[in-house]
Amino acid sequence: MKLVAKRLDVVEPSPTLAITAKAKALQAQGIDVVGFGAGEPDFDTPDHIKEAAKKAMDAGKTKYTPVSGTPSLKAAIIDKLKKENGLEYKPNEIIVGTGGKQVIYNFFMATLNPGDEVIIPAPYWVSYADIVRLAEGVPVIVSTTPEANFQITPEQLKAAITPKTKVFIFNSPSNPTGAAYSKKDVEALCKVLENEEIITLSDDIYEKIIYDGYEFINPAMISAKMKEKTFVINGVSKAYSMTGWRIGYGAGNAEIIKNMDTMQGQSTSNPSSISQAAAEEALKGDQSCVETMRVAFDKRRKLIVDLLNEIPGFRCNLPQGAFYAFPYIDGVYQFPKFAKALAESGETSKSKFFCDKLLDDYKVAAVPGIAFGDDNSLRLSYALGEDDIRKGLDRIKQMVLDLQ
Ligand SMILES: Cc1ncc(COP(=O)(O)O)c(C=O)c1O
Questions:
Q1: The domain spanning residue 379 has which CATH number?
Q2: Ligand 1: residues within 6 Å at CB?
Q3: Closest C-alpha to ligand 1, atom 14
Q4: Reduced to 3 states, what is the DSSP secondary structure of residue 250?
Q5: Which residues of 191-201 are buried (b: 16+ CB within 10 A; e: fewer)?
Q6: Same domain, 261 and 299
Q7: At what angle do helices 254-265 and 99-111 cross, to 10 degrees?
């Protein structure tokens, strides 16, 4: 008997979750693993946010809420988007979901017909292409390079558009590269998009983790015309260290929101009532916790990039946002011992071979670039202490020296 539905043939389990689980299993056996795999801040959720959750429980806010979120959380989101991004929305243009990931999933389920194309610049967040395929869409991957700061150019975007293009995914600052588009660069992309019948999905989840005076900008903020054509995704996971609470939100066209509400109503119903109360406090309460975490990430960012660039065969851009370093390691692939070990292993992906060996033999977890559509690279999350960063980087350097 065939137990599993065919629709699952098109998706892969999340490689970042798989690597993190393997590293945690080794740690549970008492093995000293340095984990650069996780896509979450290492800080505790700030106390005032936890207090709001406790208060919500004590006040009996433990029942179903409207599917698309409580009116008071929606009001806090509308306020945030107006104050911080200059974008005005009505409550029927907002949906709250169980993490940004569910909002993205429901967005694609609500908008794509079979065969619709979705332009995804690579390197990309691992889930985009799989979610698009699950929704019977076709991912159209456009590769970018470290020399171009991992940014898609207007020319590349134009060339990728066909009559079947339905959505363009814009993610800045980006997971996995940490690259962030300047206002000028976003304007140039919008010049192409303004005249097309394409929805831009702007994934703003790393909006608040930015460096060196970078000013956040998304396509909806460029013009009224672009706001009409853009669907914004954001959430509290990364900015407020609330990954486990599972609250994300979407803002955009009311008809899309209505259909996402139907999807959500027939699958999960509302996101947790207690988490919604906590997210409301995150958005409305004291914001100094965001800055404290950002400053800590900034210090680690400089440390890890400096150390990565000292490793033979590595080159790493200084990311402008998020908490990932994305070194290019194609130089290592030229080393004779690496090439010999790779050939003997039979592994076809160089970055996967590198990361498997790194975890098995040197006890360091990193995610292979192939998971993000770029086999020349690795992703290292720097959401861990500076001593661990140094220890992990020493081990990576040792492995590279052993493979030279
Ligand atoms: C680019 C990007 N978008 C969206 C998400 C979803 O985050 P969450 O579902 O925790 O809100 C993530 C999480 O890793 C991400 O990296």
A1: 3.90.1150.10
A2: 39, 99-101, 125, 171, 175, 203, 205, 235, 237, 243, 248
A3: 39
A4: strand
A5: ebbbeeebbbb
A6: no
A7: 110
Task: Sort residue 79 into left (φ over 0), alpha (ψ -120 to 50) or beta.
Answer: alpha
Last residue of a domain, one of 284, 310, 343: 284
147 and 250 part of one domain = yes
**Across-strand partners of 324?**
381
| Mean pLDDT in residue range 330-357 | 96
Whole-number Å distance, alpha carbon 276 to ligand 1 midpoint, is 17
pLDDT at 101 over 80: yes
| Helix 47-58 and helix 273-284, axial crossing angle in degrees, nearest 10 | 140
Q: Do the domain assignments include residue 1? A: no
* pLDDT attached to residue 39: 86
**pLDDT tens digits along 254-293:** 999 999 999 999 999 999 999 999 999 999 999 999 999 9
361 in the same domain as 242: no
Residue 176 domain boundaries = 62-284
Tokens of 369: 């670039």
- Of the three residues 252, 284, 316, the one that is the final residue of a domain is 284
Question: Residues 6 or more apart from 111 whose CB is under 8 A from it?
Answer: 166, 167, 199, 256, 259
pTM: 0.97
Q: List, for residues 176-234, the tens digit of each pLDDT value.
A: 999 999 999 999 999 999 999 999 999 999 999 999 999 999 999 999 999 999 999 99
- In 36-116, the DSSP E strands lie at 94-97
